[in-house]
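Quick illustration, no need to memorize.
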Amino acid sequence: MEAIEETLLSLLNTNTDLIAIVEDRIKPVELPLDCPLPAISYTIVSDPRHQIAGSPRIQYSLFSYSYPEIVEMSEQIKLTFEGFSGVVNSRTIIRIYPENSYDSSDSDPIIFQRVLDFRIVYIR
C-alpha cells in the first residue's frame, strides 16, 4: 500500500482550484532550487506508531511571491482536508484535523510562506 503522504497528495490533486494555482509543484520535504512559485512542500513532522491506526502530523509549506495567492492556496487545502473522512486509493482515512498554521516571509525578493499542520488518522 502506498505511503500516507502519497494518499494525501492524491486527495489534494482532486482540488482543481488548488492545482490551477500550483500545477504539479507539490513536492516532498523541500522544493528544488529552481522550482517556480507558487509551490508547496510537505513533510512528516511526527508519526506515532499504533498497531491498527496511524496518526502522523504532516506539515504543508506554501510559497508564493503573492500574499493573496498564499491565502487562496491555504483555503483550498483547508477545504480539501479539514474534517475529511473516506477512502482514497484503497486507504481508509478516519479523519483529518487541522493542528496549526502560521505565516512567515523571506526577502530579496519577498517570498511569502504559510505553514499548515494537519493530523491524519487512518487505518494502516
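Residues 4-123 form a domain with the STM4215-like fold (CATH 3.30.2000.10).
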